[in-house]
Amino acid sequence: MTRLDQPVVLTRIQKKNIARISEAALSVFSAHGFRGSTVDQIAREADLSKPNLLYYFPSKEAIHAHLVSSLMETWLDPLRDLDPEGEPLDEILTYVRRKLQMSRDHPRESRLFAHEIIQGAPNVLDLLTTDLRDLVEDKVSVIAGWMAAGQLAPSHPHHLIFSIWALTQHYADFDVQVRAVLGDPDADPFPEAETYLTTLFTRLLRPGE
Hints:
209 residues, mainly alpha, Arc Repressor Mutant, subunit A, Tetracycline Repressor, domain 2, 2 domains
């Protein structure tokens, strides 16, 4: 069988096993980080033999790189969708809500990405300094234009985006802490979080507030 780094047409079974390995790796890496995870753990989680797993990916590094790189596309979609022709405050608030929704619906992905960044981004540093930076600069230009036109209150566009990332992804990356402090491990913090963050960013950005 040709490995994944060579052009191949994958069979249905191959696609199924790759998806199975990716799902297992997401669970293992998000729980233990890259350094704390092993191929054996991923194989057990995927209910595959280690040789079968290595038939698709030659190493733990290859699995992690494949997973993180593929997740980056999904992770950046909400920022890509910020529309320069839209109503500025609505566009920002929609971005906040979508990022919070991703933390609610995809907490493992958020924690995986956090682990990657904490470790120095060995698998995605090139993407951070090229694709991500270019996308952020494009949206910073849009936001700065809105502020210059008086459609949003003045603020620092880069740090606005950073604060949105921090305040939304916190609910995934620190889920246990959030629920412990709230005093109910079964409570859903996201409805109140959305209300709070909507109010916070509205007050920050609405002209004349």
